[in-house]
Amino acid sequence: MTAVRRSWMVDSVEEGIAAVEEDGGRILRLPLWLLPEGVREGEILAVLREGDTNRGSVLIVRVDREATERALRRSRVRMGQAPPGNDPGGPIVL
C-alpha cells in the first residue's frame, strides 16, 4: 500500500467550493463537502492518501491545528516586520 502526504492551505471558501493551495504551489478547487466540516480560510489541512491501484484509495483530510498556528505566527511576525512605506499619510490629493 502506498501512502502520500500533502499539506493544503485553505485560501478561500465560496458557494460550496474551496480553493486550496497544495504544498505551497498550485491552487486546487474542491467541493467543500470533501473537507472537514466547518473548515475556514487560512487553515492548514493535513492530507493523507492511502491505497493502491487494485483496491482503491482512501483520502483522509484533517485540520492541522499546529501547522495553522505556526502559519499564523509567521504571518504576524512578517506583518510586524514589514518595512515602513513611503506614504507620509494625510489626505489623498488628486
Structural notes for this entry:
The structure is a single chain. The chain has about 90 residues and is α+β, with helices and mostly antiparallel strands. The chain is about 15% helix and about 45% strand.
Primary descriptors:
alpha+beta; 1 helix; 94 residues; elongated; five-stranded antiparallel β-sheet; single chain
SSE layout:
Layout: E1 2-14, E2 17-22, E3 27-31, E4 44-52, E5 56-63, H1 65-80
Antiparallel strand pairs: 1-2, 1-4, 2-3, 4-5
Question: Summary?
Answer:
With 94 residues, this protein is α+β, with helices and mostly antiparallel strands. The protein has 1 helix and 5 strands, in the order E-E-E-E-E-H. The model has no long low-confidence stretch (mean pLDDT 85).
Q: What is the helical fraction, as a range of percent?
A: 10-25%
Distance between the termini: 65 Å
Strand content: 35-45%
Give the SSE order as H and E letters: EEEEEH
Counting H and I runs of at least 4 residues, what is the number of helices? Answer: 1
Secondary-structure-based class equals alpha+beta
Radius of gyration: 19 Å
Biggest sheet, spatial arrangement of strands: 3-2-1-4-5
Write down the overall mean pLDDT. 85
